[in-house]
Amino acid sequence: MVSRVRVWLNRTYAENVFFMDQLRRNPSDRAVEIHATHGDPDSPVLAAADTAEPEPEGLSPAAYVEYALAQCERRGIDVFVPRLHQSAIVAHRADFESAGTALLAPPPEAVAVFHDKVIAYEAVQAIGVPVPPWWRVRSADELEHAVGELEAGGHRACFKPASGAGGVGFRVITRAPTR
Asked: What element of type H or E holds 17?
């Protein structure tokens, strides 16, 4: 009999409840136990997990790696899918492997590329992957120019910081004042 696989998702996106369902309905019909941690106690990921607990707040990346290693050992995690502090975690891949935990995460070089959306867009464009029209802006004049170009092309302009995750900082740009 094949043993179940224990998977940990840390502070992942709410949409990953669908990923969790896919893990459970795998073609091999292998049992999957999902552990989730999150800073938001109302995260749907926590509700969908088999076991869940709050994320510790305020840990440095190095301290988070120590927490994660202890969590993997304590819970017998087979596969860790990190989102929070991913750069620090993948730099310690060998430590996780020594603890019996595989990291489902890209190598450090790829994490660095995708940490900055401008670098990521440039990297994928360089290999022929289409991306939506975009501009890096650093001033009000550059922003006005980019918005004008997007509008001239029939697009609605939006703003997203070059780094950060989820919807943090995302804004749709309008010309009408908001209340």
From this structure: helix 16-24
